[in-house]
Amino acid sequence: MAVNQKERGQTIALYAIILPLMAVFLMGLLDYMTTSVRMMDAVAVGDLAAHAGAQEIEVLPHGVIRATAAGNAVAATYFRNQAPSYLNLNSVQCGRYQGRPACRVQAGVLTPGFLFPQRWIAIDTVGYLAHGVTREDQ
To answer: Which of 10, 63, 65, 136 is the most buried (most CB within 10 A)?
Structure first.
């Protein structure tokens, strides 16, 4: 079966159109998937750091919640020790959050920038102190 010159030119033109579009689609998909994984890492590290900092909050017998400087330091240290290079710690606030003893960790995630420009995305996690659980109980 002989392929004439006209059909072969048509196939080349089709590949010339489809290949760049497919490459752009795959780069966008890779960018999205990598950003998604980085966001999940940020939430996991931020959540664990917030819970570690919340362990340092003092709850007095009459219900007064007292933040300690150690809570912020523990959460920040935990975050920095666990975070990959594309995560940045923005702030840590331990004390009362929504009426309960908690630590709030705010972080930034750097997108990979394969197809779209690199940018920072903010992540906000909160770790509450469970009733009856303190650092001494562990």
So the answer is: 65
Q: Is the pLDDT of residue 72 over 50?
A: yes
CA angle 101, 106, 107 (to 5 degrees): 145
Which residues have C-beta within 8 Å of that of residue 82, sequence separation ≥ 6?
Answer: 45, 48, 49
Q: In Å, what is the CA distance from 121 to each residue of 36, 43, 96, 107?
A: 11, 12, 25, 8
Note if the pTM is more than 0.85.
Answer: no
Q: What angle do CA 73, 49, 46 make, to 5 degrees?
A: 125
36-56: average pLDDT:
94
63 contacts 117 by C-beta, under 8 angstroms: no
Chain position carrying tokens 């752009």:
24
Does pLDDT of 9 surpass 80? no
- Please give the backbone phi and psi of residue 118, each rounded to the nearest 5 degrees, phi first: -65, 145
What counts of helices (H) and strands (E) characterise the chain?
A: 2, 5
Query: How many residues would you count in the chain?
Result: 138
